[in-house]
Amino acid sequence: MTKMYYENDCDLTFLKGKTVAVIGYGSQGHAHALNLRDSGCTVVVGLRKNGKSWPVAEKDGFKVMTVAEATQRADVVMVLVNDEVQSDLYKREIEPYLTAGKALAFAHGFNIRYKQIVPPADVDVFMAAPKGPGHTVRSQFVAGKGVPCLVAVEQDATGHAYDTALAYIAGIGGARAGVLETTMNQETETDLFGEQAVLCGGVVDLMRMGFETLVEAGYDPVNAYFECIHEMKLIVDLINKGGISAMNYSISDTAEFGEYVSGPRVLPEKETKENMKAVLKDIQDGTFAGKWISENKNGRCFFNSKREQLAKHPMEVVGKQLREQMLWKNDSDLDNASN
Q: Cβ distance 72 to 97 under 8 Å?
């Protein structure tokens, strides 16, 4: 079994007397900074000068400074800006100020795995990755709970990288739920694969095609939306709590029978797995990373066009209209999501 850590395995004193710089103050950044401070850690926030998050972090009571200044001040530097901007930011404002014995941390291994960031040999490098969005990391912490985390040490220059990583995760509340040991390579590759083949790419296309099939057959788009998209959360919540067997226990026997006879028709196992293996190969050999890096260097034309296309799709238009009529439309458990 993979090694798991809990609160009694973590010692927050490894952060005592040290300063943690949280770079970025978005979904994850604000949660990490607030949770660490509430755990008694000294935290500064590093941001782009005059960026939109600067006054937000100041209002929350943090000492805010440029990324270069925060890196100079800190003993632990946690990089929580988007993957696609990390490399340039690192080379410009972090790398020149990483002195021996400091720790460089990430919540996702993309830039380390694909060598967009190559830290010096005399600093610790670790990953502390909550398996949930930032607003959940914060709300669970406030409720006295935590979001499970992954921990990985890529470089142990000081001999205490694991101690620092586990202390950091305890500080954001992750050790309350459990900390799974992994590597940055494994986390990056499995995370990208899960997103592309199942959680985002797979599920979104499955919902879209289900919606389109019903609408093209003459059914009301509202019914199609509820059956193929809205109810997805209900099913996933059941699986999250008790696995697929718990989901099958809760749904009707008719639905379970349909799962067995129709699921393989929609997703033929041999063809689907072959396609999934091709996706995984692109992730493993760097093809996907190369495409994403190139996309960001060349104006994001494909990415932006697909966003615009999705926004105009009937399932999004119908869904927006429905949510505006529902009592749960003002659900505060969403971060920066369109309505």
A: yes
pLDDT band at 329 (very low <50, low <70, confident <90, very high): low
Q: Which residues is 4 bridged to in the sheet?
A: 180
Bridge partners, 288 (sequence order): none
- Report residue 44 as tokens: 């500064």
Q: Is the pLDDT of residue 1 over 70?
A: no
| SS3 assignment, position 106 | strand
What distance in Å separates the CA atoms of residue 235 and residue 320, rounded to the nearest whole number? Answer: 21
Helix (H, G, I), strand (E, B) or coil at 124: strand
CA dist., res. 331 & res. 277, Å (int):
37
Give the 3-state secondary structure of residue 335: coil
CA 323 to chain centre: 25
Which tens digits make up the pLDDT trace of 167-183? 999 999 999 999 999 99
DSSP 8-state assignment for residue 283: H
Which among 106, 110, 112 is positioned nearest to 126, based on CA atoms?
A: 106
Tokens (6 digits) for 231: 């109810």
In which residue are the tokens 């967009």 written? 116
Query: pLDDT tier at 327 (50, 70, 90 boundaries)?
Result: low
- Give 240-294 pLDDT, tens digit per residue: 999 999 999 999 999 999 999 999 999 999 999 999 999 999 999 999 999 999 9
Reported for 285-288, long-range contacts at CB under 8 A and 24+ positions apart, including other chains, are 286/114, 288/192, 288/196
Helical ranges in 7-142 per DSSP H: 27-38, 54-59, 67-73, 83-89, 110-113, 134-142
CA gap 41, 50 in Å, rounded: 25
Looking at the whole model, is its pTM more than 0.85? yes
Active site positions, annotated? 108
Question: What b/e sequence results for 196-219 when a residue is b if at least 16 CB atoms lie within 10 Å of its CB, and e otherwise?
Answer: bbeeeebeeebbbebbbebbeeee
Task: Pick the closest to residue 105 from 38, 40, 153, 138 (CA basis).
Answer: 153
* Nearest one of 283, 71, 126 to 192, comparing CA atoms: 283
